[in-house]
Design brief:
heterodimer; A: 122 residues; five-stranded parallel β-sheet; 43% helix; 21% strand; globular; B: 653 residues; five-stranded antiparallel β-sheet; 19 helices; 41% helix
Chain lengths: 122, 653
């Protein structure tokens, strides 16, 4: 069974890199350009995993995570946020908002795949 | 479509750098604006993150320092200062060079040294984890926070991961399980005792719990031959990130930008694809006009009606195509804010830039080619035009000099004006210089317009001395030539003591021109209609009288003319009623003698091959309705060719 992953990032190049990595590992990828788009795309469906940036226009990753966790249908969906080493308190906020885990930018494609395997199982 | 993340990154990095630059320039004016600080920080941050991802390690490392500096500003530890903004601006330039891949290391180091001096504060040392020792195994106990499962952590996966590390013996602890009546099914109350055997590092175990370690219970003890030592309780264990001390939370969140962007979807298309599309549309227009010609020769009503439909559609398609290439001049104007900032620093003058009409749209190619001329004009305005602050005050002006840049559309042209409120052009100096250069006779009467026009002559500079700002081997003559190569024109007006205005008139697009189709011998040529002033008969009388000296009198002015038949060596007999098309660039006029004027012709320009580009007199080619090729005459070249002849003849007459 192919796991479906939603990636939310306002950087086109990052989205492309993430998509190439994840589809290469056999996952199905849906892309969203910011938190509002991500929220809209996740509402009404259930992805197996969500990977999101934090700093984004329109709706940032934190708000999106909070909004998603309020939907009963999204309970238990792993949400991985992309963080950088310099935003330690952002990490705490994201965790409090209901994020499952994080990946520190910059990351290599295989790190992303390891994280996906970690939360989705192999 | 080929997917090249590196290329996409380069484009994106360019945009980020531009954002950072604009943010910094704004910040220079409003040092306390935290929204701007955050915007700049975000730009640097993204640049660093994606830079490292796409293998731009030098860029990432360099940007990291700037980002750290800005992080401190963001957190209120360091105030934003003009010097800091200025250093980061030069750092931005270095980053741009790093993206392009040609940045000298020494330059980067010098900037970082300046940066360090600007932010006089030491960076806190990161927290490093203790080196773990491997043993033959571990005994551990873990209990997840109650909301872990709702938040996407699956304990079964964690157990699987532990099993992957080595031989594992798992026992569940149900002691914390609430009574069934109060049990919330997706809360996690179980704990697990795990005995792991194998050569496993403590880090590997901690890695399994990395996402939940901050708020879970995790006890890890080495599996010794001795009884289990007292368990190590990991509370708020050092996570992957170094924890920075005393970070005020209020300033930290990078929040969304103040104004939500309107939901217009944009697609980025490489320019060469647009060019290819443009070519196809151009060919379609040509094919359509051949079809129209054929249909007109037949009395087939159905064919005609189809032809008319195609004519309308191809016309619309061409119009749509033109709009695709249009970009607002704001992309051009935005780049001058930086220039003004640098000029103000270099000259020690206070300069304000005002822009208007940024939404005016112009063909992208035109925009690109306008950049250098405008840089030169703005430099001139700031360097020669604006006075030093003390002089301005003495002249009763405000201390800050003003440069106004505006654009607006007028028909098929865009007018761009550059206005400064400086001292104006010194006419006496222009005259003296003109006389010294032999451009005018001493004491020669000149209209004001003509006098000011002298500054466009080659080798003309009114600056008493060449500074490092202007006069870098580029004069207004080059500016003028560039503008004319865009089929535009440039004019200058100036009032002593009040300032100068330079006006550029530029066509909206370079791809299509309105042309005048003429015949010379057996070939047809196109003249850009914008350059055509009038058409006259070359009377036999004029022809005879002018023999040997190709000059005609046009409203009391002598106008030289060029016989295109001779120039192109047609080898055919001239038509009995030859015509003169008078064309002009700026104030210079030249008559071009042709055999026949065929009429207006809207022309899709095809550029000449690299091999033919050196051939003077032609600026391009077009394909006519009947499939034949017509060359487009380069008016500026023809005028330049005729002028020396005119001067020679004038001297003789």
């Amino acid at each position: 069974m192919t796991a479906s992953i939603l990636t939310v990032d306002d950087s086109a190049s990052l989205r492309m890199a993430i998509r190439i990595a994840l589809t290469g590992a056999g996952y199905a990828v849906t892309e969203a350009v910011d938190g509002a788009d991500g929220l809209a795309k996740a509402t009404g469906t259930r992805f197996d995993m969500i990977v999101t940036d934090l700093n984004m226009p329109n709706m940032d990753g934190l708000e999106m995570i909070r909004a998603l966790r309020q939907q009963p249908a999204q309970a238990g969906v792993p949400i991985i946020f992309l963080s950088t080493e310099s935003d330690a308190d952002m990490k705490a906020q994201a965790k409090a908002a209901g994020a499952t885990g994080w990946l520190v930018k910059p990351f290599q494609p295989d790190q992303l795949i390891r994280v996906a395997q970690k939360v989705l199982g192999k | 479509m080929t997917e090249d993340p590196t290329a996409t990154f380069r484009v994106e990095a360019g945009e980020l750098l531009e954002q950072v630059e604009q943010g910094l320039l704004d910040l220079g004016h409003r040092l306390g604006d935290m929204a701007l600080v955050n915007a700049v920080f975000r730009g640097l941050h993204t640049l660093k993150g994606s830079g490292a991802m796409f293998g731009f390690d030098a860029l990432a490392a360099f940007t990291h320092h700037c980002e750290s500096a800005f992080d401190r500003v963001r957190k209120g530890e360091v105030p934003a200062t003009a010097e800091l903004v200025s250093v980061i601006l030069s750092a931005r330039d270095h980053m741009a060079a790093l993206v392009d891949g040609d940045a000298p290391q020494a330059e980067g180091d010098a900037i970082l040294a300046r940066l360090a001096a600007a932010v006089e504060a030491a960076r806190g040392a990161g927290v490093t984890a203790d080196a773990p020792a491997a043993t033959q195994g571990w005994k551990l106990f873990f209990r997840l926070p109650a909301d872990a499962m709702a938040n996407g952590t699956n304990p079964l996966m964690l157990l699987d991961e532990l099993r992957d590390l080595g031989e594992a013996e798992v026992r569940v602890r149900t002691d914390a399980l609430p009574p069934l009546g109060t049990l919330v099914p997706n809360e996690c109350h179980l704990g697990w005792d795990v005995t792991l055997r194998g050569d496993i590092t403590r880090e590997a175990i901690e890695d399994v719990f990395i996402f939940v370690m901050d708020d879970m219970t995790l006890e890890i003890a080495p599996l010794g031959d001795v009884a289990p030592a007292e368990p190590v309780v990991v509370e708020e264990a050092p996570a992957a990130a170094p924890v920075e001390a005393a970070a005020p939370v209020a300033a930290a969140a990078g929040g969304p930008p103040a104004a939500a962007q309107p939901a217009v979807e944009n697609v980025r298309v490489p320019a060469d694809r647009l060019d290819a599309l443009m070519d196809r549309v151009g060919e379609l227009v040509i094919a359509q006009s051949r079809l129209s010609q054929l249909a007109n020769n037949r009395h087939d009503l159905l064919l005609r009606s189809v032809t008319e439909d195609i004519e309308r559609l191809s016309g619309e398609l061409r119009d749509t195509m033109m709009v695709l290439r249009m970009v607002p001049v704001s992309s051009l104007f935005g780049r001058f804010r930086r220039l003004i900032h640098d000029l103000a620093r270099e000259t020690g003058k206070a300069i304000e830039l005002q822009t208007s009409g940024e939404t005016t749209e112009v063909d992208k190619t035109v925009i690109e080619r306008l950049f250098d001329p405008l840089v030169h004009i703005i430099r001139n305005s700031c360097d020669h035009g604006l006075e030093a602050p003390a002089d301005r005050i003495a002249a009763g002006k405000s201390e800050t000099g003003l440069v106004k840049l505006s654009a607006h559309q007028a028909g098929g042209e865009v007018l761009i004006t550059i206005v400064d409120d400086g001292r104006g052009i010194d006419r006496e100096r222009v005259r003296a210089k003109g006389e010294a250069n032999g451009l005018i006779e001493p004491g020669q009467q000149l209209a004001d317009e003509e006098l000011l026009g002298l500054i466009f002559h080659p080798g003309f500079s009114t600056a008493a001395q060449v500074t490092n700002l202007s006069g870098r081997g580029v004069g207004m003559d080059v500016v003028k030539r560039t503008i004319e190569s865009l089929r535009g024109s440039i004019s200058v007006a100036s009032e002593t003591g009040k300032g100068s205005t330079i006006t550029l008139r530029i066509p909206l697009t370079l791809a299509i021109i309105e042309g005048l189709l003429v015949r010379v011998g057996e070939s047809r040529y196109v003249l850009p209609l914008s350059a055509v002033e009038e058409c006259l008969e070359l009377s036999l009388e004029d022809d005879l009288r002018s023999r040997g000296r190709s000059l005609i009198t046009l409203r009391d002015r002598l106008v030289p003319f060029v016989r295109l038949r001779d120039l192109f060596e047609t080898g055919t007999r001239p038509d009995p009623h030859q015509k003169i098309v008078v064309v002009a660039t700026g104030r210079e006029r030249v008559g071009l003698v042709v055999d026949q004027i065929i009429g207006n012709h809207q022309t899709v320009i095809k550029s000449l091959s690299a091999f033919h580009r050196g051939v003077g007199s032609f600026s391009g080619a077009t394909i006519l309705g009947d499939g034949n090729v017509a060359l487009i005459l380069d008016v500026a070249q023809l005028v330049a060719m005729a002028q020396p002849r005119e001067e020679m003849l004038r001297a003789a007459s």
